[in-house]
Amino acid sequence: MDKPVVRDAALLFFRVIVGLIFIVHGWHKLMISGITKTTGQFSAWGVPQPKLSAWVSGLAETVGGAMLVIGILATFAATGLALLMAAAIYFVHLGAAGFTQLGVEGGNSIEFPLLLLISLAMIVVFGPGRASVDGVLSRA
What we know:
This protein is mainly α. 75% of the residues lie in helices and 0% in strands.
């Protein structure tokens, strides 16, 4: 398993899945729920500057997720998204519904954003891999 091709394939798969998760969540905030509904949710949760926060999180998740999928400036995108996840954990998920959502109606548990935060940290630490735009440009 300690072969570069296996490592790069695993990093590619991991990075693409994490990126797609962020694209879906950002797109949902921007286009499905819409900024008005997202702002209302953020306001109810006590997020500071809820309208600005809704726009920033929706755009950052959509654009940052796409950057992860493509693998361009991936460590930069992962760092920004990690800061966003840390803010989400602090303002929304910390102590809201416990660790897991099992049996909690509409709970804002901490396990999913924590998993995303750790996943982003793995991308920052190990990089995007050679199967990325960053990897191709670094070899050129």
